[in-house]
Amino acid sequence: MICSVKQSVTTTINGSDLFLRKRSPAASIRRSSLLLPALHKPERLTLSISKPLHVSSVENLSLRARRDSIKCEAYEAADRSKPVEPDGKAEAAKKVKIGVYFATWWALNVVFNIYNKKVLNAFPYPWLTSTLSLACGSLMMLVSWTTRIAEAPKTDFDFWKALFPVAVAHTIGHVAATVSMSKVAVSFTHIIKSGEPAFSVLVSRFLLGESFPVPVYLSLLPIIGGCALAAVTELNFNMIGFMGAMISNLAFVFRNIFSKKGMKGKSVSGMNYYACLSMLSLLILTPFAIAVEGPQMWAAGWQTAISQIGPQFVWWVAAQSVFYHLYNQVSYMSLDEISPLTFSIGNTMKRISVIVSSIIIFHTPVQPINALGAAIAVAGTFIYSQAKQ
């Protein structure tokens, strides 16, 4: 549309209203009023135009102005909602923190297994040894909460009710693993314990009705085959030690299942969660340890160990108890920072470090075929962790 305006055109602006005084229909005046923005000045002014004013479609201008307004608002909203880019230093610090957790976890686990085996060689009472490990950790956490070194968790009856089956499974697995290490080499126990994923899949499939992809089932073949090959070629094979490791695998699988079902929605940190688990397991284990072994056997065995080893035996007991709690606590703290897949890989590498270090320190005789079985089992565990995710 083209509007022609004469030389003398008087434009009166009063507030936000605009009027063009000319000999044209009222509709043209109303449309032309949309061309200029509203001015919020109360004064009156006169506008003179000497040339014809050519104006394109007012509707197009109005639509363009509306689009510009929407675009401006969109830019403002996008600018407000722009995510903050992660700080490179923060990411690097997190990676260093996880690396420290892993290195500490593996080192503490290796030290625990060494001292635990030394104690069991001189003091073959796995029930008391297991009880002392839980008692030491529980005492350490109670002192930490009392002195406010660590913040005490806020728990209720429902929390402890959900934790009870987890603690039962944890107690059985802990005692069974200690019984196994009292009868066979540390390396053999951990080779058999590397077969835990096979128990996890079988229990989940036949008891819980869960199904898994084909690669998960195929990854069980090297695990089972490697464990069987290592067991058959073990020079110091013992059935009690073998069954203890197998029972430990099964118990820890149920512990994980109960933990996933019972702890949903519970806001307790990994460190405090394991502390509560240790305390409840201690209450469950103590009466059974007294019934199975008893104070008389413990007193006689303690005297024998002190006479053979000397006062340093007390340090061995204290060390294995402290390091047991610390390595488990750090593992739960690591799980707070990493994904389950990364945790599984770390757990696999931990077993390798324990097996190799125990063979070196205790001079465990290993045949080539036995070492091959261990390598196949550990490799199968790694493949399983990849296929599971």
Automatic annotation (TrEMBL):
It is found in: Plastid, Chloroplast membrane. One of its GO terms (molecular function) is phosphoglycerate transmembrane transporter activity. It comes from Carpinus fangiana. It is a multi-pass membrane protein. Keywords: Chloroplast, Membrane, Plastid, Transit peptide, Transmembrane, Transmembrane helix, Transport. This is Sugar phosphate transporter domain-containing protein. It comes from the Eukaryota. Its main location: plastid. SUPFAM superfamilies: Multidrug resistance efflux transporter EmrE (SSF103481). PANTHER family: SOLUTE CARRIER FAMILY 35.
